[in-house]
């Protein structure tokens, strides 16, 4: 029997951790279930995306830091299906189909772009005071960017808009891949459908997993930590999505709608509501706390 390698193509903050937790809780003995096995400093989303030329793929496979993860999956698939649910490998779909050939299949998992961009913004991505390194923050200046035309407006975009661009690129590349390799088995799925048991069972059936008894969905949904909400809260940046008709039209083609009253309510959970939260935000409480912790540790204290 040929075991399948399944890549869940997603932008992150889109239900992939919830999916991973469901699969791990219910099917850990049936498959190797991974979540972000390859860190972005190795998978290099800015560099290794859209590798449709075999010569480019061969060059990428010379990267030993990356190849060690592929080899682990290749060894694993000899005895069990492999499912990678995390976002850090989604741009590697062309490389993975080259490696796994007819064993390769994929799921496109997406979420409303405004909700995604809010959740990703609160993580600090593209923020001027972010503590993230830049390995994974894609931009229109990347060598093989699918939307280089966005370069002209990039420096005027706020961090929320740039997160929106991240969503746009992820799924534009996903559907570009599907168009180029129409013969590869795939499933398109919205994150909202993960909370519908009947729809989730469709996804599980696609993965070839056997459900015995009731599906246990009592797992973590990867809520945003308070630290993030009080460091990078959503203010009114989200309203600038109106500037991007190209992204709106693409999202509408996936079935998403844009009603500001509805979106305003969605954004409320990313905003500061309590006085002490506002105080921590204004005083940069979490940043100061982290700096003090590092200072104490540098002096030899735990």
Number of domains: 2
State the order of secondary-structure elements, H for helix, E for strand.
EHEHHHEHEHHHEHHHHHH
Rounded to an integer, what's the Rg over CA atoms?
20 Å
Count of β-strands: 5
Describe the largest sheet: 5 strands, parallel
Q: What would the CATH topology of the largest domain be?
A: Rossmann fold
Structural class: alpha/beta
Low-pLDDT sequence parts = none
Q: Give the terminus-to-terminus CA distance.
A: 52 Å
Residue-averaged pLDDT:
95
Portion in beta strands: 5-15%
Q: What's the overall geometry?
A: globular
CATH architectural designation of the largest domain: 3-Layer(aba) Sandwich
Percent range of helical residues: 40-55%
The side-by-side strand order for the widest beta sheet comes to: 2-3-1-4-5
Count of separate DSSP helical elements: 14
The CATH class name of the largest domain reads Alpha Beta
């Amino acid at each position: 029997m040929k075991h399948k390698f399944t890549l869940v193509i997603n932008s992150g903050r889109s239900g992939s951790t919830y999916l991973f937790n469901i699969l791990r809780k219910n099917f850990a003995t049936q498959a190797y279930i991974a979540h972000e096995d390859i860190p972005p400093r190795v998978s290099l989303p800015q560099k290794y995306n859209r590798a449709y030329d075999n010569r480019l793929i061969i060059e990428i496979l010379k990267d030993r830091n990356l190849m060690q993860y592929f080899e682990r999956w290749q060894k694993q698939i000899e005895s069990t299906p492999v499912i990678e649910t995390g976002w850090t490998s989604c741009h590697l779909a062309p490389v993975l189909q080259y490696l796994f050939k007819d064993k390769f299949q994929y799921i496109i998992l997406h979420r409303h772009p405004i909700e995604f961009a809010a959740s990703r913004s609160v993580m600090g991505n593209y923020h001027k005071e972010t503590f993230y390194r830049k390995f994974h923050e894609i931009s229109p200046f990347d060598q093989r960017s699918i939307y280089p035309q966005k370069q002209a407006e990039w420096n005027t975009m706020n961090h929320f808009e740039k997160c929106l661009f991240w969503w746009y690129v992820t799924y534009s590349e996903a559907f570009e891949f599907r168009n180029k390799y129409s013969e590869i088995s795939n499933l398109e799925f919205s994150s909202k459908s993960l909370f519908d048991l009947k729809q989730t069972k469709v996804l599980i059936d696609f993965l070839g997993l056997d459900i015995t008894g009731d599906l246990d969905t009592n797992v973590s949904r990867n809520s945003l930590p308070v630290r993030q909400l009080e460091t990078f809260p959503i203010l009114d940046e989200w309203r600038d999505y109106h500037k991007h008709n190209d992204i709106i039209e693409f999202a509408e083609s996936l079935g998403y709608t844009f009603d500001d009253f509805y979106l305003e309510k969605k954004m409320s959970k990313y905003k500061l509501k309590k006085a002490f939260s506002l105080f921590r935000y204004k005083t940069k409480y979490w940043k100061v706390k982290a700096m003090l912790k590092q200072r104490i540790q540098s002096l030899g204290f735990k």
